[in-house]
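Budget justification aside, the reviewers requested a transparent look at the raw inputs and outputs of the sequence design task funded under Objective 1. We therefore reproduce one unedited record. The lines immediately below are the structure tokens for a 339-residue chain.
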């Protein structure tokens, strides 16, 4: 519709089993001024036929070949024409005021990104994420992960970045920032975008009444090789590409300590080889890291000290401490945006 405020962009790959409930929840939104755009990432199943038959008002774009999560989202970002865009996983459904509450913080022109309160679809009293944090050691965390909903609703407004599961953006700011990094394919691309938006001086905030339900890891197993390889590689790219050089040197000991701790934990989980493969794969992306550092320098509108204030210095307690603190401040490694 011509007066739409937002475009809800749903990257889809073999999500047929989730689409009916998702589409029904979007049709029931209290805010009606939005368009829905499904970008199908070359699904071999009949997802598009279902949408054409049951939801003809939904616009569908199909990739000619499988591009991965980040590139598929960018297809939607470029196709949208509304001032706001929302990235929404296909394995979700949302409450009636999800859209209206997610758009509310944009009255502040400094806000470029908004995170929903995302709950576990199978255990809706538990939190998937209340926005993401990023530590000086190079770890990203889901705020409030597996904690109670009531505690998450009381968390502070400012976050580092929204999770790509349900992320609202000011479209102009995202396009100026360059969109999602397509070399990431999947995992950590939302945190990476959060760095660029922060460098541009924008805020990312949490909207606790914008409720989304997520079938966690419905597409990629959290024990799968692809999950750990991509997460490991992309996490390294994010740290080395986005931290100013002074901060890299200052927090290099913390980063190395974190990697040693994380690597040991991955070995105990039985996924250490995939994690190590990702770290080695990072070495093949050094030229890309250099390009991203130049991009950050060109985008930066705040000082290194101001950017550092967006990062959490209490990395040890966040990564090693309780993952179910009463305040919901700790979490687990993020990058689990599954398509």
């Amino acid at each position: 519709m011509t007066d739409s405020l937002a475009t809800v962009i749903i990257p889809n790959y073999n999500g047929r089993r989730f689409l009916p409930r998702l589409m029904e929840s979007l049709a029931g939104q209290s805010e009606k001024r939005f368009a829905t755009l499904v970008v199908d990432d070359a699904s071999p199943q009949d997802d598009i036929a279902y949408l054409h038959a049951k939801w003809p008002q939904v616009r569908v774009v199909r990739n000619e070949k499988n591009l991965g999560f980040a590139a598929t989202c960018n297809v939607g970002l470029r196709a949208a024409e509304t001032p706001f865009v929302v990235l929404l996983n296909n394995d979700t459904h949302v409450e009636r005021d999800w859209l209206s509450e997610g758009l509310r913080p944009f009255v502040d022109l400094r806000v470029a990104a908004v995170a929903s309160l995302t709950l576990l679809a199978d255990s809706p009293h538990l939190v998937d994420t209340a926005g993401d944090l990023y530590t000086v050691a190079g770890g990203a965390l889901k705020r409030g992960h597996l904690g109670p909903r009531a505690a998450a609703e009381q968390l502070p407004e400012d976050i580092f970045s929204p999770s790509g599961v349900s992320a609202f953006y000011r479209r102009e700011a995202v396009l100026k920032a360059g969109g999602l990094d397509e070399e990431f394919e999947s995992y950590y691309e939302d945190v990476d975008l959060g760095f660029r938006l922060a460098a541009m001086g924008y805020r990312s905030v949490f909207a606790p009444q914008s409720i989304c339900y997520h079938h966690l890891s419905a597409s990629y197993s959290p024990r799968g090789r692809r999950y750990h390889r991509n997460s490991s590689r992309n996490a390294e790219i994010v740290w080395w590409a986005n931290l100013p050089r002074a901060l890299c040197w200052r927090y290099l000991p913390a980063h190395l300590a974190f990697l040693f701790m994380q690597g040991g934990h991955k070995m105990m989980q039985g996924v250490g080889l995939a994690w190590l493969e990702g770290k080695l794969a990072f070495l093949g992306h050094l030229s890309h890291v250099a390009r991203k550092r130049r991009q950050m320098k060109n985008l930066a509108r705040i000082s290194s000290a101001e950017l550092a204030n967006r990062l959490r210095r209490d990395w040890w307690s966040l990564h090693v401490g309780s993952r179910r603190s009463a305040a919901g401040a700790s979490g687990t490694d993020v990058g689990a945006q599954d398509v």
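The radius of gyration is 19 Å. The first helix runs from residue 19 to 27. Computational costs for records of this kind are itemized in the attached budget.
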